[in-house]
Structure formats: C-alpha cells, structure tokens
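Lecture 7 notes: from sequence to structure.

We start with a single chain of 57 residues. Read the sequence below before looking at the structure.
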Amino acid sequence: MKIDGVCHCSQIAFEAELEPGKVSICRCTDCQNISATAFLTIAVVDGAMLTLLWGEP
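Now the structure, written as tokens:
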C-alpha cells in the first residue's frame, strides 16, 4: 500500500510503500492530543521503502 504525508510539525514530507498488516492505532493521551481525536494511526515502514520528498530530519 502506498502512503504519503507530512510530519506533525510540517517540516518533512514523505511517501512510502508499506504492508497493511503493519498499520495500527494508538489511543494514549499524547496521541489523542496530537490528532484531536480518540486515536492516532501509526504505520511501521522499512527505511528502504521510505522516500523523503522535502525537508531534513
């Protein structure tokens, strides 16, 4: 599955290929505050499958 997005601070954009089985959710209070909802979606991606589109880590 192909995904793309930006980091929380919007300084880095990325795209990646990932396995759907490596997607999960977190519902801790930090993730609830960051996402302003009941949970945050998390995707674990192999570094070789990640491409930075702009920005620097």
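The longest strand covers residues 2-6. Keep this in mind for problem set 3.
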